[in-house]
Amino acid sequence: MNLELRHLRYFVAVAEELHFGRAAVRLHISQPPLSMQIRALEEMVGARLLERTQRKVELTKAGEVFLREARQILERAADAVLAAQRASRGEAGELALGFVSVADYNVLPPLLHDFRVRAPGVRLTLREATTDLLVQDLSDGRIDLAFVLPPVDEASLEIRPVHREPLVVALPARHPLAATSGPIRLAALADAPFIFTPRRMSPGLHDDILAFCRRVGFSPRLEQEAIQMQTIVSLVSAEIGVALIPASMEHMGRTGVVYRPLVEKSPLTEVGLAWRRGDDLPTLQMFLEVVDAYVVKHPVGSRR
């Protein structure tokens, strides 16, 4: 006969009650089978664990040691069950999440907070990169999901819109238009040098800005390219040029930069969540539930 968890439960009940009848009631079994199981346990252990008389039941020294160890084993077994249940619900385990820099100024902070509340046992690994690199990381299995700038031309991925917002203009503080208090016309920047993200890294945003400028009558003069939005804003601060950036980037305070809304209705910059089609990783599914709840409270649209 092999030692099983039920033997430990039976013994702990008898050891705590010090009475076979009360222990049997507690375990919802009859007393004779309980007595047989305790005797079988002592045979397996090779030591007497209980002293029995007609008047009382007492633990032996070996029984006291065995009781302490049995309780720990039962607690560990219960913990293992709970851990497995949490993992199956996506409340424990690991999740590798990628994000573009723009997401760090709009959806990423509240979603990470909500996910931590729902699944505090999940170990999150974060990676900031451009959309093209994040898509490659997803395809190669290095990350589980990512906040990207659509469009993404990859059939193996699911894309869910999470956030949309207009563009604003970032101006050097000493630019003549920075002194205005209200919205400015995009055409007023026709002669200004522009800072862009490289098209290969964010083709949607790059093309939207070009088309927006052309719609009001000019082609922007490209002065410099920068991969990260933070770098673009830094270059504006250095008076290298002006830039059209997602409105949430206004949250990044930077000395020497002034943000202004535009008179014209700008294209909307979208942040989408991408993951491998058919991936049933429990922690990923939990994160998607958190995103669903967020979108219900904050419908995807033009947000400032």
Low-pLDDT parts are: none
Q: Give the % helix.
A: 40-55%
Sketch the topology as an H/E string, one letter per element.
HHHEEHEHEHEEEEHEHEEEH
> CATH H level of the largest domain: which superfamily?
Periplasmic binding protein-like II
Proportion of strand residues: 15-25%
Taking all residues together, what is the mean pLDDT? 90
CATH topology description of the largest domain: D-Maltodextrin-Binding Protein, domain 2
CATH 2nd-level architecture of the largest domain? 3-Layer(aba) Sandwich
Count of domains: 3
Number of helices: 9
Which strands sit side by side, in order, in the main sheet? 4-3-5-12-6
What does this structure look like?
This protein has helices at residues 5-17, 20-27, 31-45, 61-88, 108-118, 131-140, 203-215, 229-237, 282-297, and strands at residues 50-52, 57-59, 92-99, 121-128, 145-148, 157-165, 167-172, 193-196, 221-225, 243-246, 257-260, 269-276. By secondary structure, it is α/β, with parallel strands linked by helices. The chain has three domains: 5-88, Arc Repressor Mutant, subunit A (Orthogonal Bundle), CATH 1.10.10; 93-162 and 277-297, Periplasmic binding protein-like II (D-Maltodextrin-Binding Protein, domain 2, 3-Layer(aba) Sandwich), CATH 3.40.190; 167-267, Periplasmic binding protein-like II (D-Maltodextrin-Binding Protein, domain 2). The strands form four sheets. It has a five-stranded mixed sheet with strand order 4-3-5-12-6, sandwiched between helices.
